[in-house]
Design brief:
Elements (H helix, E strand, L loop, with lengths): L2 H12 L3 H20 L4 E3 L3 E8 L2 E4 L6 E4 L2 E8 L1 H9 L2
Helix pairs in contact: 1-2
Length: 93
């Protein structure tokens, strides 16, 4: 499912126009993004938690030539699914 299909599904389920559903989805995503940028966490009960993971700098081997290279430290977004979401997905295999 892509964003366009998700907007259509939200519009249908919530009895909204596609424009209203698109604005609601954009506001939702911007809210999560803004919180993560400032190092916060977003927890949606029953669904999961969005957070930020700080990765340390590390040395790795380049598989092409065997030399070592340095990977810089960075912050990456992370999603941890909640138990309700896990059980729904595993139940409907």
């Amino acid at each position: 499912m892509n964003k366009k299909e998700l907007v259509a599904q939200i519009a249908q389920d919530a009895s909204l126009t596609r424009a209203q559903a698109a604005r609601a989805l954009d506001a939702f995503l911007k809210g999560i993004e803004g919180t993560l940028v400032h190092g916060g966490r977003v927890t949606i009960s029953g669904f999961g938690t969005f957070g930020v993971l700080d990765r340390k700098a590390r040395r790795v081997l380049n598989p092409r030539n065997g030399s070592t290279m340095e990977i810089a430290a960075k912050r990456v977004p992370r999603f941890a699914p909640g138990t309700d979401l896990k059980s729904v997905v595993s139940r409907n295999r």
